[in-house]
Amino acid sequence: MATPPSRRRSLTHRWLLVVPFVWQVAAVPLVNRVSAAPLHIPFPMLWQMAGVLLTSVLIGVVFRLDRAAGALDEDER
User: Fold this and answer.
1) pTM
2) Which of 4, 51, 57, 59 has the smallest C-beta neighbourhood within 10 Å, fewest atoms?
3) Contacts for 67 with CB less than 8 Å, ≥ 6 apart
């Protein structure tokens, strides 16, 4: 059953889930050039660990925005 246009919800916030992909894949050439080793950890490894934390936060944000938009209610039907 199609949702009437007046009840459609904007789910454009789901594009935030592209950020981790860009973080992990598209920035690799830039990150590999950094020779710094903060905390005696190679920078690319530190970059990956920060990406895991960023991804977790973004998934939580998208989940909350989905709940606010009522997108989770559709799954219960």
Assistant:
1) 0.69
2) 4
3) none
- Reduced to 3 states (helix: H, G, I; strand: E, B; else coil), residue 16 is helix
Residue type, 25: V
Nearest CA to 31 out of 45, 14, 18 is that of 45
- How does pLDDT run across 35-61, given as a tens digit for each residue? 888 888 888 889 899 999 999 999 999
Six token digits for residue 76: 């219960």
Which tokens hold the place of 57? Answer: 């936060």
**C-alpha span between 6 and 2 (Å, rounded):** 11
Instruction: Look up tokens 């970059």; give the residue.
Output: 47
Tell me if 54 sits within 8 A of 20, measured CB to CB.
Answer: yes
Calpha distance 58→72 (Å, rounded): 17
The per-residue pLDDT for range 5-23, each reduced to its tens digit, is 544 567 788 888 898 888 8
